Structure formats: structure tokens, C-alpha cells
Amino acid sequence: MPRRKTLPDETAAKYRKRKFWFWAVLVLLLLISVVLFFLIPYLTKDKEQKLIRVGICGEVHIPAVYTMASGADLSMLVRRAYGLTPNADIRHVNMDRLLMNDTIYHIPGRGNAHAGADMQEALAAAMKINFKDIAANTTRESVDKEIRQINVLYVGFPAVYMIINYYPDFKRISITHIPHTTLFLNNDYRLIDIFFTIGIDPTVKLLENRLNQRIDYYLIQDRFSFIDLIDMLDGIDIEIDKPYAEAYDLTPGPGHIDGFHTWEYIRFLDMKRIKRTFTRGTGKDLIRIDNFKAPPSEWQLAYEMRQHRQQVVMTSLRKAYALINPARQAEILTRITKTFETNIKPDLMLDLYRDVLSTPNFSYGTLPGYYQNEGDKLYFYPDLPSFTALRNQEIRTYLVKPTTRNQATY
Predict the structure, then answer these.
(1) 10 Å Cβ neighbour count for 114?
(2) pLDDT at 46
(3) pLDDT confidence tier of residue 192, bands split at 50, 70 and 90
(4) Is residue 410 assigned to a domain?
(5) pLDDT number for residue 330
(6) Does 355 reside within a domain?
(7) Mean of pLDDT values over 357-368
(8) Residue 83 maps to which CATH number?
(9) Segment 388-392 mean pLDDT
(10) Residue 134 resides in a domain
(11) What pLDDT was estimated at residue 40?
């Protein structure tokens, strides 16, 4: 059969079709190239912005320039620099201010040549041990066999300090908030000064001695791990007050907030209620750019407001955890244990946090004592005998007299 000849119109149609697809593919490739040209640097820039370079000088052990995660605060940088020297004066330093890239932070000093010796002498006197042995293991008194008790020091950077008393047999949790301005020594070094100067282990031993109770473990949580915890729970429900809502462009009343807004809610200060004067630093003293001075009475109000917000968040956090199905709870607990700095073994950590978040027998209070200002500084003086009496009274409420032996006495 003779081959059909291709007509001119058919040839032209095929040519136009091939030409169309050629230009369509070419344009598509050009568009992809343009998008990648602009997008790749943008993504790379975002990745680089997750890390910042900041310097610290003054009264820290290792002044230097450090690489930090974006969103870190000054307290995390201080700890990265191996803590404060005994001469450091952070009583007017905003330790929870967020770090800015390419910035140098200066920690001022007390101007006391004997500050280190004074702190060591005060610590040794408070703990009645040689300062050189401060980090060594000490013999603890045996625990009464009538009741099991696990005590944990919780540190939330930079200024949250709590003693968590966990009673496994009774499924009870008792939390005592310790103001960061508390004076445990016979000088003006506060709890926050002590922690950032001598570290966690000596701080634990000091509190054991002063509070007259053993502390088995410590648990340290920074800004990042706290935000991650709240986000793992998909946020919490709280009553958003008007001042906080106005500051963060939220709607007052019942609301749902994520980890970032929860962190900010705790540390938020209602400036309209606090009388203050702003000060600006010079030279490298950049920590004072966003600082302000306020009378001690106003600081006391600010601390009490923050303490109330801590309780609100803790209650809401436990409610959020209770609403999650058991499988998800276990997953969250496993992830939580990897976000803290702690000496608690993973299995015990799971049990502890499970009870903290879920047990109905839960109490929250503050170390008995009173605030007092000295000049322009505010300190908290603890009433340690009252603390011991209240703790023992609470323990007695847990006990049920056995039928075969005498009642335990505290």
C-alpha cells in the first residue's frame, strides 16, 4: 500500500506542538531556577540565624565570645562562661533578657577584693564543713522507715527555685517555692548569686543544711526546654489578663497559648503598675540597655505577681497533660526526660514527672519569711523553723496509724 504523504498543514501543526512544549519546558526550568536562586540563600540564612555570636566579659570565670542558640537568655550565657566570680554583682542585672547577635555583655563587680574569701567563709559557716569539701558526698541522716520521700531541687533559669517533695506511697506532691532573693548566708549573697557562682552541687548541699532536709536530685530547665514542654502538650489554657493581652496583642479572657507565650506570661511585668526609672549604659555595659530601676517595694510586687503566674501555669499544665491519651502521655514523658539537665535516672524521672503532672494530691506554697529592702536592694529573709514545722505538719496528714505499731512522730 502506498505511503500517505504528509500534508503541509499536518507538518505545521506538529511543528507548532513541539515548539509549544519546548518553550513550556524551558520556561518551567527557568522558573524553577529563579525560585531556587532566591529560595536557597533564604533558607540558608534562616538556618544560620538559629545560631548567634555573643560575647561576655566582666565578672565571669571565662570571658569570651560564644556561639549560642538564638533565643537564649543572659543566664544561659553566664553559665556557658562557667558562672560568676564571687565579686560579681547581678542585683541590678536582667538575667532573663534575650541575647542579641554580635553583642557584648558586661557583668559588673562588687568592687570587693575579699569577696571570694567572704563567700567561702560564709558558705563554710552555713554548712559547718570545710569549703574544700563542699562538693564531696556527705553522710545523710537515715530516712524514717514509716514514709518514703524523694526530694528534688528544681531550677528554672534564671530565677525559679523550688523544692519538690514526692511521696510515692501516698501519690502526693508538695512544692515549695524559694524566692531567688533569699538570703541563706550571713552576708548579702542571694540564692541566685550562689547558684550562678558555685554551681548546682554546692547549692544543693547548702539548701540541705539550711532547710534541714536531704535533697536527692536536681532538675534544671532553661527557656528552650520549658517552651518545648508546653508545645509538646499543644499549649495550655489560661485566663489571659488584660495587661498581658495588650502587651502581646492577644484577646483578654479564657485563651489557649503556646510555649513561647507561656514563658512570656510567667516573666511578664505589668509596667503600668510598677513605678520605675529607665537607665542606659555606656560603652560595653550593654546589659543595661533594657534595664530599669524600681523601689524595692515595687520589686516585691513584681516577684509576687510572677509567683502567682507560676502557680497558674503549673495548674494549667497539669490539666493539659490529663486531657492527653495515655499513649501520648508516655511519649511526651519520654521526650521530656531528654530536655533537662538532671542527675535523676530515666525510670525515676518518668515516675516523678508522671505524678507531678497527674496526681490529684498536690500542694504549692512559698518558703515562710518576709521581704526587706536595704537601700535600693530587696532581700527575702526565710523563717526556717516555721518551714520545718509546716513540712512536718503536712507529713503527719499523710500518715495513718498502723494497727500493729506505734504512730510515727515528726
Answers:
(1) 11
(2) 42
(3) very high
(4) no
(5) 76
(6) yes
(7) 78
(8) 3.10.20
(9) 84
(10) no
(11) 52
Q: What does the pLDDT read at residue 76?
A: 93
Place of cell 548569686: 193
Gyration radius of the chain over CA positions:
29
Q: What count of other Cβ atoms lies within 10 Å of the Cβ of residue 68? A: 17
- Specify the pLDDT at position 38: 55
Q: Which domain holds residue 94?
A: 51-107
Task: Give the C-alpha distances (Å, rounded to integers) separating 222 from 158, 191, 227.
Answer: 8, 17, 9
Looking at the fold, whether 97 and 202 belong to one and the same domain comes out as no
Q: What is the DSSP letter of 99?
A: P
Task: For residue 226, give Cα distances in angstroms to 28, 219, 339, 394.
Answer: 46, 12, 9, 29
**Which H helix or E strand runs over 236?**
strand 236-240
- 362 in the same domain as 235: yes
Q: Give the number of domains in the chain.
A: 2
Nearest alpha-carbon partner for 279 in 289, 287, 269: 289
Identity of residue 250: L
Residues 160 and 223 grouped into a single domain? yes
For residues 196 and 76, state if they share a domain: no
pLDDT at 376: 77
Report the sign of the C-alpha dihedral through residues 335, 75, 362, 390, in that order: positive
Q: How far apart are CA 79 and CA 73, in angstroms?
A: 10
| Residue 71, CA atoms < 13 Å, CB-side half-sphere | 13
DSSP character at residue 187: S
Quote the percentage of the chain above a pLDDT of 90.
Answer: 29
**Mean pLDDT over all residues of the chain?**
78
Asked if residue 100 and residue 229 are part of one domain, the reply reads no
The pTM of the whole model exceeds 0.70: yes
Is 112 domain-assigned? Answer: no
Residue in the block written with cell 577584693? 113
Same structural domain, 304 and 222? yes
User: Residue 370 corresponds to which cell in the numbers above?
Assistant: 518576709
Same domain membership, residue 176 and residue 89: no
Q: What is the pLDDT of residue 33?
A: 67
Burial per residue of 247-286, b for 16 or more beta-carbon CB atoms within 10 angstroms, e otherwise: eeebeeeebebebbbbbebbbbbeeeebeeeeeeeeeebb
Contact 276, 292 (CB under 8 A): yes
CA distance 141 to 1: 111
pLDDT, tens only, 244-257: 998 889 999 999 99
CATH number at residue 388: 3.40.630.190
Q: Are residues 151 and 67 in the same domain?
A: no
